[in-house]
Amino acid sequence: MLIKSIARKDRKTKNLVKRLLPGEIAVINHRDIDEVAAHSLVQCKPKLIINADQSISGRYPNLGPGILQAAGIPILDHVGQEIFDFINEGDILEIIDNEIYHDGHFIGTGEILTEELIQLKLAETEKNFEKELEKFIENTLEYAKKEKDFILGNLKVPEFKTSFQGRHVLVVVRGQNYKEDLHAIKSYIDEFNPILIGVDGGGDALLEFGYVPDMIVGDMDSVSDKCLLICKEIVVHAYPDGRAPGLKRVEALNKKAVVFPAPGTSEDIAMLLAFDKGADLIVALGTHSNMVDFLEKGRKGMASTFLVRLKVGSKLIDAKGVSKLYKESVKIKHLIGLLIGAMIPTLIVAIMSPPVQQLLKLLQIKLKFIFGM
């Protein structure tokens, strides 16, 4: 392998993809590359990914590296923190096999993740998965005790301009398969006109499909300025003590925001506020709902999500993965049936019309003349 290109570097992959261009080298420090990060990197089409950390640490079966490998994007893995610190944004790097060179000087080496090696590493995660699950359950129960206000209703929910009473609400998170799922429920959105809540980057997901979010909820770390400027209402998720780092960004855009101090995730409080304000139905799309989802987000438990879903469960429909349950497709037999169905009334109308009846009589006389009937 011989690759030479410009390096783009960031500790946060979600920030890097905003400026990474096709053909460049992505330099990241991302342990256990998740599916969302992998898909965002695939869209940028880099020549190579250099990861300072382990793309598969063995904690759980993360599928990101397999997605990148399938897309033909090689990963030079676990090069180390020193190499990550040495490389600067805009450096011209040359990679020969698994060795990294800068200005002709060798600076370090890593491990190329082949398909076989990825499968081997994923198989090894099965040994650790039970231990991770046990720790995850313990953390969830521990944090559930601290965050029980979610289920007891002692959390003060602010007032909003958006009226939820009796309305359907769609909560969109830019999670796994969000594009496919949004496409699958597009007819629902167009027919029922639900209140559209984008959780951080979920607002941009709605924009991709031509919808303007009614509300953006989150800490404002992954939503675009464009989305914040055109959305109708902004809710900044603050820490329980009231600190709201994301508020500065909103104010810098001369926009107003409601601050909502609460534990848990931003998608949790999006569902909670919709429920509290009288929503008739809450549809969650792309949200995080299982252990692997939360491990990919770097969380050690899902207490708030567990408690919130207990509380809003009577009004909640989870649309995550709906595209896999139902794939809209047109088959040949459907087209033939549609064609026949359309032709039958056309033929009946044509036969009943006087000009066509005269034409048929002339055709009948001509056939009798030709065949001597």
UniProtKB/TrEMBL annotation:
NCBIfam families: division_SteA. The keyword ATP-binding applies. The lineage of its organism: Bacteria, Bacillati, Bacillota, Clostridia, Peptostreptococcales. This is SteA-like C-terminal domain-containing protein. Signal peptide: none annotated. The keyword Transmembrane applies. Gene3D superfamilies: Thiamin pyrophosphokinase, catalytic domain (3.40.50.10240). The chain crosses the membrane at residues 335-353. One of its GO terms (molecular function) is kinase activity. Keywords: ATP-binding, Kinase, Membrane, Nucleotide-binding, Transferase, Transmembrane, Transmembrane helix.
